[in-house]
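Trying the structure run again after the queue cleared.
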Amino acid sequence: MKQTFEQKSNSHPTLPSHTPTVQSTAPWYSFWKFSRPHTIVGTTLSVLGLYLIALAKSPAGFSSSHLFAILGAWIACIGGNIYIVGLNQLEDVEIDQINKPHLPLAAGEFSQKQAQIIVAIAGVIAVLCSVFQGPFLLATVGISLAIGTAYSLPPIRLKRFPFWAAICIFSVRGAIVNLGLFLHFQWVLELGKKDYTLFSLPSSFSLLPSSFFLPSEVLALTLFVLVFTFAIAIFKDIPDMEGDRQYNITTFTLQLGKQAVFNLSRWVLTFCYMGMIIAGALWLKDINSLFLGITHIAALGLMWFWSMKVDLQDKAAIAQFYQFIWKLFFLEYLVFPAACLL
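Done. Tokens:
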């Protein structure tokens, strides 16, 4: 008799029949894969994009000292990024051997001990670097690390629950990163830290609440990324159904089906782009609304054109479209700051 989903959930997961063998891959390439390159690119562009928006809203012009602020924030955020994605891989080795066998731990390119050391060092770098950069960056990194830990690590392991898993992903990528980084760069610019250097502890962590504000542009970008990241969060589980089902990781894809989640993702992205176009025309006064509108219409049209060709029975095609969604995410951190500066 065919086993029901509930029976599968309660049964002990069957381990893969093969044991991964250590590959002769170059260590640095394995580390690059371990860091999940698409998330590294997204983090890098978010740091640069939020700096450019803060610069566009500040009466102070560019200063070479800002390069230290950008570099310091980037190191802290990249460290946090590697900690979060690395911890997730440490806890998901058996699942990744089914869903993502190319990852270093699943492929046997890294041992558990090696991965643990990388994750620990990345976490320490993230915290120490943010401590030396200012209160807003420290809060941004600290909250992100806490949520990333709760997402992957037992006994909490929020990734088991589709609602809380999505909340973790889009709260960090959407709200915490955007608001925290903007406030950090505004703090750097507005307090006139003329002697800002990369690893010199700021002379004062005193905050002047009246000096800080969240302009409409930052709020609009934050809302856009919040909703966009929700689409990423639910879409990423479509090609991972087999491993998630076997290891009792409940996802929207398992609950609703591939087609329903695929369609939901497309309409969520459509809502994002249409909302930003309307906001640019009616709400955002200090932005080039024509440039914003044209670029977002083009991105939306390209998304629908590609999505119509995706075969949901082809795991490779689904993965390629998922990476395309990430490229649209990257593009926003180039297009939106450009619209602010133009």
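The chain has a mean pLDDT of 82. Worth checking whether this holds up in the mutant runs.
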